[in-house]
Write a structure and sequence with these properties.
Order of helices and strands of chain B: HHHHHHHEEEEEEEE
Shape of chain B: elongated
Order of helices and strands of chain A: HHHHHHHHHHHH
Largest sheet of chain B: 5 strands, antiparallel
Strand content of chain B: 15-25%
Shape of chain A: extended
Helix content of chain A: over 70%
Largest sheet of chain A: none
Oligomer: heterodimer
Radius of gyration of chain A: 24 Å
Number of helices of chain B: 7
Strand content of chain A: under 5%
Chain lengths: ~240, ~220
């Protein structure tokens, strides 16, 4: 946050009415941006009404924002702005729902393709599978991504339906933390094997180790990772007990 | 956790889409290195998250290259009006507090505070290449009022393509104040003069040629 921004918030906190107006004007591009995006992707003609709802959402966000929480205002305000737009009109909601239907098709196709390809599919591959055009997919994703951002674009449930175990974003963050605690070599081996899908033989050639050494190091790294996750889990449980959860 | 489950998770970690919070942090380069590694690997192959990230980047750009016009100002003022009117009379209003304070604050200091707010408001409103003659003649393109309502200013696009900036105050203590105003390529000294029993007023014109400079860069100095 710039000094000018901070100053505006300070003045607003002291009850300065002009600061409120200046804050609204300062962040107005956010409201205009989302109103324009939604108007474009939902195909609704009355951009003026959307803009007004977006500004109302922005004003609500300014009222609720607490500078001390350390969250960037644009991240705090985004759900307020988008929420105000989508709550405002049955028509907007219906249009977003129509796009959601299309997006549901994409969501169903994605894990099936991931399962077959063992990688994330391209938009063209998804288009071929769903019978939608690339443009239709993009538009639907944009509308749904804006309207239902909180639950977008999670794919764990859809993947589970085709028997794939995909970590949730929270679990992914836990795994990231545990991986970062391993030494550089172990991280690299795990990364090459599991993320880049290289074989032990390919990793051995790359790192100038023997294949059996790579296999051994990888197994050891997995063991260390498992132990680290156990320790973290126990730590979390102890923390929960202490806080009475 | 069985090892094969863990290995499956690691293998499928690249498929986990990024949350909006993660994407926003990535966009602002605030994601810590351990999470950034996965985010980058995922973004390389995921068109879904890539598109969401593109939206957030556009949002950041909109905020950086802010474009605010007179319509925006009018909309904000219209939306703020009912809120200001809704205030209960018993509530301690900042305007009233400011009015009370105004009687105690020395003129010079008060005028400095007014002008600081005025300039900030102007700069926010003019941070785009507006005011270059596309506006309707006679159109008011900017308006501002101090928190206590004592000083008002507005700008009008005149028929002869001049942009006139008007200052009016119902605070007679401000009569005689001399202000050096610099904006665009124009710099001029004006004096707030008493025009009625309860009002002081001054006006400055910025020609079309003078508006070729940076119009957001308004400076007012009390001399």
């Amino acid at each position: 946050m710039t000094e000018a921004e901070l100053n505006l918030w300070r003045r607003y906190g002291q009850g300065d009415e002009t600061a409120r107006q200046e804050l609204i004007l300062f962040y107005l591009p956010l409201a205009k941006f989302w109103a324009k995006q939604i108007s474009r992707s939902a195909g609704w003609a009355n951009g003026e009404d959307l803009r007004q709802e977006a500004v109302i959402g922005l004003m609500k966000a300014i009222e609720k924002y607490d500078l001390r929480r350390g969250v960037a205002f644009k991240n705090f305000a985004r759900p307020y702005i988008r929420g105000a737009i989508f709550d405002s009109s049955e028509l907007t909601r219906d249009l977003a729902r129509q796009q959601e239907e299309r997006y549901r098709k994409v969501k169903q196709a994605e894990p099936e393709l991931m399962h077959t390809l063992q990688r994330l599919p391209t938009i063209a591959e998804v288009a071929a599978k769903t019978g939608l055009s690339v443009e239709q997919i993009r538009k639907a994703m944009e509308a749904v991504g804006i309207a239902f951002a909180a639950e977008f674009p999670a794919n764990q449930d859809d993947a589970a339906a085709v028997g794939m175990l995909i970590p949730s974003p929270e679990r992914a963050a836990i795994l990231d933390d545990a991986l970062a605690a391993l030494n550089q070599r172990d991280q690299e081996i795990i990364n090459l094997f599991y993320r880049e899908d290289l074989t032990d033989k390919e990793i051995a050639a790359k790192l100038k180790f023997t294949v059996s050494k790579v296999a051994k190091l990888r197994q050891r790294a997995i063991k260390k990772l498992r132990e680290r996750l156990e320790v973290n889990k126990r730590g979390g449980q102890d923390e929960d007990r202490r806080s009475g959860k | 956790m069985k090892t094969d489950d863990l290995e499956n998770e690691l293998r499928n970690l690249k498929f986990t889409h990024l949350s909006e919070d993660e994407l926003a942090a990535y966009c602002d380069q605030e994601l810590d290195p351990k999470h950034r590694l996965r985010a980058e690997a995922h973004l390389k192959q995921c068109f879904v998250c890539e598109q969401q990230l593109a939206l957030l980047r556009e949002e950041s750009a909109a905020l950086t290259y802010r474009q605010i016009d007179a319509d925006d100002l009018a909309l904000v003022e219209r939306l703020l009006k009912p809120l200001q009117a809704d205030r209960k009379p018993t509530e301690s209003r900042p305007e009233e507090a400011a009015k009370d304070a105004a009687t105690e604050v020395p003129v010079q200091e008060r005028l400095t505070a007014y002008l600081r707010q005025l300039v900030a408001n102007w700069q926010l409103a003019f941070q785009q290449p507006v005011m270059r003659g596309r506006e309707e003649p006679g159109q008011e393109v900017w308006r501002w009022q101090s928190a206590d309502g004592r000083l008002q200013a507005h700008a009008i696009m005149e028929k002869n393509a001049d942009l006139t900036i008007h200052f009016a105050a119902n605070d007679m203590a401000l009569a005689g104040a001399r202000l050096k105003i610099s904006v665009g390529l124009m710099s001029q000294v004006i004096t707030l003069r008493q025009v009625s029993a309860s009002q002081v007023y001054a006006m400055v014109a910025v020609t079309w040629q003078q508006r070729q400079g940076n119009m957001a860069n308004l400076a007012i100095e009390i001399i």
